[in-house]
Task: structure prediction
Amino acid sequence: MFFTSDNASGAAPEIIAAVTRANEGYARSYGADDIMARVTAQIRSLFDAPEAAVYLVPTGTVANSLALALYAQPWTAIFAHPEAHIATDECGAPEFYTNGAKLMGVDGAHGKMTPENLSAALNRVGESGVHGVQRAILSITNITEAGTLYTPAEIAALTAIARAKGLPSHLDGARFANAIAASGATPAEMTWKAGIDILSFGGTKNGCMGVEAVVMFDPAKAWEFELRRKRGGHLFSKHRYLSAQMEAYLTDDLWLRLASQANAMGARLAKGVAALPDARLLHPAPANMMFPEWAPGTNARAFARGAMFYPMPGAAGRDTARLVTSWSTTEADVDALLTALRP
Ligand SMILES: Cc1ncc(COP(=O)(O)O)c(C=O)c1O
Result:
């Protein structure tokens, strides 16, 4: 009954096997390994983006921070939802890597920025000459931190507003696979066809040991990314172990199969939670993360019965929680949690 996060699950057997295979013999270091060349080809083909530049890093935080640093100077602003991981859970890493760019909140219900709020924020910022920060980049998260989904059309609406002001757009895809599995969109439709310039493509939460790809649909800043990754201390010398994970992740649609399992278990759990007495979901839950609110005492009862999940701050007199399923969650796990939650 481990529902704290999708990174609480282990790595998929295919990933471990690939790392073991990559351990044989010698390989060129610092990303010059043969596996990395194949990964670049895989990602270009998957995204239908033959020019894309592709780099691997070990964490989502550094993927986001290095991506944003390519576009945001110290005197500029990054526009994102106030609950965005870059704003709330990266310990100031985006500010650190950009040497102090400002994060500007663009609100919206269910973890999603609205076009109206984005327009208003863009109109407010950058108009006071030398006295105010200048606009730099829009950052969107999908699946959002509220567990909700932006459709490609919703992403396109936001990036069009940003582009009209000359801003590029970043997608934090720590749960990109879950978003693709939930939407049925193609990776291209969810990214460059919807106006995304640079993507953090997550692997870790969805069955890898620790690897994320940064995909640059416009490779103009590729060399700068390489320099920033090295200077930021995130160029692995034994890079083949990152490459091997990503190659296995992309082979035979493993990434999509793992995310589909996580989402299927999310759907089973969401349905079960909605059927509990005096319980409701605070946001739609199309993928693998949900935020229920239920009768006081529900969290304590489930914890006493061995369930693991994060309680969340909520309305007075109510219990709130965050539940996350992963590629390794089984129907039996979900049903055990639902039993533990019942009076
Ligand atoms: C939406 C989102 N982005 C980025 C990250 C960063 O991942 P990491 O913990 O690997 O730095 C996470 C991890 O929780 C996340 O949920």
Observations:
- Residues 254-274 form the longest helix (21 residues).
